Amino acid sequence: MGSTTLAVQTRGLTAGYGSTPAVHDLDLEVAEGEIAVLLGANGAGKTTTLLALAGELRPMRGTADVLDCGRRSRLDRRARSGLGYLTEGRCVFMGLTGWENLKLGRGKPARALELFPELEPHLGKRAGLLSGGQQQMLALGRILATEPRLVLADELSLGLAPLVVQRLLGALRAAADRGAAVVLVEQHVRHALAIADRGYVLRRGRVALSGTGAELAADADSIGRQYLTGEA
């Protein structure tokens, strides 16, 4: 399972918006070198969990220890400590070229191109003119070029072709194999579990099921029927 040094540890984490919690009493652990996937239907609390881990949402109750930054540290401090956060949607500046997008990152553009060499012929185009897959490679490459200690990725593969999904997930697996911790929210259950060391299934803001990636993959059909088709 990789290193036993924890990059993420939550205990009784409750977080949400205003006075309304969206996740309740979460106990999560992700070690350096591990990928943990968060599964669940829409509204299950996956994005809220990532926002709390990033430091964008303060816990209402419980604790979230992330990269030894302090339990209530803000997003900017966690970013300086090695957090890379790929939010839902396309994390690129649409009016800038691909090259300009890469230059905005803290890592070397050449490193991003080592990970995704298929981007190189398109770097002179505005990011808004790239395909969805190219935009996502650009965003993920910019993050991974910094050699982050922790990557949070929200719906990495949304709307993308299977071959592109495999490229993106493979890049995350390679980053974990180099020592990064990864927390991944993903709709492609089987693809995600194939690269994951552990998984958590959320339902109505609580952990309903957890296990190793292999354990959950063996029961993927049942998980899909019981937890991913709705909140009823």
Automatic annotation (TrEMBL):
<dbReference type="InterPro" id="IPR052156">
    <property type="entry name" value="BCAA_Transport_ATP-bd_LivF"/>
</dbReference>
<keyword id="KW-0813">Transport</keyword>
<dbReference type="InterPro" id="IPR003593">
    <property type="entry name" value="AAA+_ATPase"/>
</dbReference>
<comment type="similarity">
    <text>Belongs to the ABC transporter superfamily.</text>
</comment>
<feature type="domain" description="ABC transporter">
    <location>
        <begin position="8"/>
        <end position="229"/>
    </location>
</feature>
<keyword id="KW-0547">Nucleotide-binding</keyword>
<keyword id="KW-0067">ATP-binding</keyword>
<protein>
    <submittedName>
        <fullName>ABC transporter ATP-binding protein</fullName>
    </submittedName>
</protein>
<dbReference type="InterPro" id="IPR003439">
    <property type="entry name" value="ABC_transporter-like_ATP-bd"/>
</dbReference>
<dbReference type="Pfam" id="PF00005">
    <property type="entry name" value="ABC_tran"/>
</dbReference>
<dbReference type="GO" id="GO:0005524">
    <property type="term" value="F:ATP binding"/>
</dbReference>
<dbReference type="InterPro" id="IPR017871">
    <property type="entry name" value="ABC_transporter-like_CS"/>
</dbReference>
<keyword id="KW-0029">Amino-acid transport</keyword>
